[in-house]
Write a structure and sequence with these properties.
InterPro entries: EmrB-like, MFS, MFS_dom, MFS_trans_sf. Keywords: Cell membrane, Membrane, Transmembrane, Transmembrane helix, Transport. One of its GO terms (molecular function) is transmembrane transporter activity. It is a multi-pass membrane protein. The structure is a single chain. The chain is mostly helical. 72% of the residues lie in helices and 0% in strands. Helix 5 packs parallel to helix 7, helix 8 runs antiparallel to helix 15 and helix 17 runs antiparallel to helix 18. 56% of the residues are buried.
């Protein structure tokens, strides 16, 4: 199976959710947001803000897996080659990552609420145009517009939520950002498969329309208003270094699918070029004086933010890799359909939901080191049954293992994100959100790509079902070994409860 297609079916691009206690209908009773709303808001208002932001973010997260499930169908529909059809996903991915670095500056210059509304609008228009596209080139072009909107949504969402929550409720804000990234790889294949079987491929994109319209309807009345700072000069040099650098790295990772993996020219050339551009941006960001850099790289020098970023990056080799492997295991080893696989993965989502619900009660009193380390251990325990599984039988054990995995994934992702953003002041949040999002969008796919290469090398000589099973089993053991890295790093987390990770002076973190 081509690695590019495999990656796009399973890589979580990220992270957003919260089940609001207030019904959507109650949003109409909220008075319009004013400029005074920039700081922390009431608990009820925070719930409503979370609900609106989730409406927008869940569509961009689900869109990736929903569409990827239909690539084979689109290949047949348009009568194009597989390589040509895969640009439906590649174009979206590159546009997505390329626009992230600009999100921080845009939120500061124009205002986070305006940028968020513009991003949702772009995604909505892109979805409509994709649904009406009659040729593959048009579909690919409109996917770029979709990706540009989607790439802005997550970092700006983080900015709005963390500002509205304030440092005292940073953990609650992170709960609102944690769940959809875990559920998207599970729900996406189910929804996409159902659309292809029951409706038409156009509805892969039209399904976004009512959700985006609802988000746009409530956003002006619910989201806090911030006027932006007109004097913010755009960092053009940084843009010319960082944006193509991130896009080149993402493209290089996505192309590591042939026999030579990362050694193939189509992979290592863009990776090397992207890395050189990123190094150039870091040097620029540390020395520029006249303008604020697109991404404030100095925040990585802080223990809390830097360590959280490292854990997030290396988590791609374990936490995100397991989410990549499980669907393949069920489909290639167990012979399950795409829709059945999505249903089998539900216990994992339930485990994550359980952790995020319970975490609101106990996280504030527990040392963050133990939460993250415990989450990694649970993840490792959930991997073992799959490393030892056969081609049939043991379903109850595997489902239970996925439930444990879900708890572990939530216990790793939530405290790490809380720790990262608790150290940022409101003014630092936009560029810090962009920086963290870049780490996520590069680290997770890179780790997954490495594991995919491990699996592909083992599957190359797997001529029998038993050999294929052994290949998967060996790859699961690799993931288990990689999990030891975040387990070790967890003990360097500051000795403070997760929900109280922010010090009085963020410069001293």
């Amino acid at each position: 199976m081509p690695l590019l297609r495999v990656l796009r079916k399973s890589t979580p691009l990220g992270v957003l959710n919260y089940t609001a206690r207030c019904s959507v209908a109650r949003m109409n009773t909220i008075s319009p947001a004013t400029s005074a709303d920039l700081g922390p808001v009431s608990a009820r208002r925070l719930n409503l803000i979370s609900a609106v932001l989730v409406l927008g973010a869940i569509t961009s997260l689900l869109d990736t897996t929903i569409v990827n499930i239909a690539l084979d169908h689109l290949h047949t529909t348009f009568g194009t080659t597989v390589a040509q059809t895969q640009w439906v996903s590649t174009a979206y991915l590159l546009a997505y990552v390329a626009v992230i670095p600009v999100s921080g500056w845009a939120a500061e210059r124009i205002g986070a609420r305006r940028v968020w509304i513009a991003a949702i609008s772009a995604f909505l228009v892109g979805s409509l145009l994709c649904g009406f596209a009659g040729t593959l080139p048009l579909l690919v072009a409109f996917r770029v517009l979709q990706g540009l909107g989607a790439g802005m949504i997550l970092p700006v969402t983080i900015t709005i939520l963390t500002r509205a929550a304030g440092r005292e409720r940073i953990g609650q804000a992170m709960i609102a950002i944690a769940l959809p990234g875990q559920l998207a790889p599970i729900l996406g294949p189910v929804i996409g498969g159902a659309i292809i079987e029951s409706l038409d491929w156009h509805w892969l994109f039209f399904v976004n329309v009512p959700i985006c319209i609802a988000a746009l309807a409530f956003a002006p009345r619910v989201l806090p208003r911030d006027a932006g700072q007109r004097g913010r000069t755009f960092d053009l040099v940084g843009f010319l270094l960082l944006t193509p650098g991130v896009a080149a790295v993402a493209y290089g990772i996505s192309q590591a699918g042939g026999p030579d993996a990362f050694g193939a020219p189509e992979s290592w050339v863009p990776l090397a070029a992207g890395a050189a551009l990123l190094v150039g941006f870091i040097a620029h960001a540390l020395t520029v004086k006249r303008v604020a850099p697109l991404v404030d790289v100095r925040v990585f020098a802080r223990r809390s933010f830097g360590l959280s970023s490292v854990i997030t990056f290396v988590g791609g080799f374990s936490v995100y890799a397991i989410m990549f492997l499980l669907p393949l295991f069920y489909q290639q080893i167990r012979g399950e359909s795409v829709a059945a696989t999505g249903l089998l993965l539900i216990p994992q989502g339930l485990g994550t939901i359980l952790f995020l619900v319970l975490s609101r009660r106990f996280l504030a009193n527990i040392d963050g080191r133990f939460v993250v380390a415990g989450g990694v251990v649970l993840t490792m325990l959930g991997i073992v049954p799959f490393a030892l599984a056969g081609t049939s039988g043991g379903e109850v054990l595997l489902l239970a293992a996925q439930f444990v995995l879900g708890i572990g994934l939530g216990a790793v992702s939530l405290p790490v994100m809380t720790l990262a953003f608790a150290s940022l002041s409101p003014d630092e949040t936009p560029r810090g959100s962009a920086a963290f999002s870049v780490v996520q969008r590069v680290g997770a796919p890179f780790g997954v790509a490495v594991i995919a290469v491990v699996l592909q090398s083992r599957m190359a000589d797997a001529a029998t079902p038993a050999a294929a099973l052994a290949a998967f089993g060996g790859t699961f053991w690799w993931v288990l070994a990689f999990a030891a890295v975040p387990l070790v790093l967890a003990w360097f987390i500051p000795k403070k409860p997760v929900a109280e990770a922010a010090p009085a002076d963020p410069a001293r973190v």
